[in-house]
Amino acid sequence: MVRMGLTAERVTAVGAEVADDVGLHRVTMAQVARRLGVQDASLYAHVRSLEDLRGRIALLAADEKTLLIAEATAGLAGRDALVAFANAWREYAHRFPGRYAATQAPIKIDPELAAKAAGPRRAVALTYGMLRCYGLAEPDLTDAARLLRSTFHGFVALEASGGFAHARTPQASWLWSLDALDGLLKLKRRTASREGVSA
After folding, report:
1. Which residues are within 8 A (CB) of 103 and not within 5 positions of it... i.e. 6 or more apart?
2. Taking every pair of C-alpha atoms in the chain, what is the biggest distance, in angstroms?
3. Is this model's pTM higher than 0.90 or not?
4. How far is it, in rounded angstroms, from Cα 137 to Cα 104?
5. Which residue of 17, 46, 51, 124 is 20 to 30 Å from 193, comparing CA positions?
6. Which of 30, 9, 10, 17 is nearest to 99 (CA)?
7. What CA–CA distances, in Å, run from 164 to 20, 168, 173, 181?
């Protein structure tokens, strides 16, 4: 019998909370059921499996993270947008480590759910929109998007694991990294403009 008030969305939300508390790959259906106060079997009326639950957590997290970034970058361009984008990314990773991990892990997601999810598509649109303000076009757009993701994720992953033991604060290095990215993107724009003129 399906427990009243229990939905796929509720199971996913509680699964995300558990992921933040114990780590994405330590989440079990039993833990989620206990937090909801139901038997394990009750969950399978709403999510098919643990893998399905992780996929739903990933989509939830993509929506949340994208919304945070969109709000932070609204009306901004260039370096201001880059810094706001990066800070929102890092803030989400700090506040919600389990669900953030779901946005970076190779999780198999139900194609039907993925097709309906706006978060991942909006994330791409926000990233490329911000980079176009630097005057970039393909293939530079894709390369720049990959550079940003690698830098942001690498930094927050090392930070979370205690990988920055030097006396200089991670915050200082974070700001230095953002300045370096901004400078590189501006340099790439100038280079592309010169190549366009000479062509």
Report:
1. 58, 61, 62, 65
2. 72
3. no
4. 25
5. 124
6. 17
7. 22, 9, 10, 20
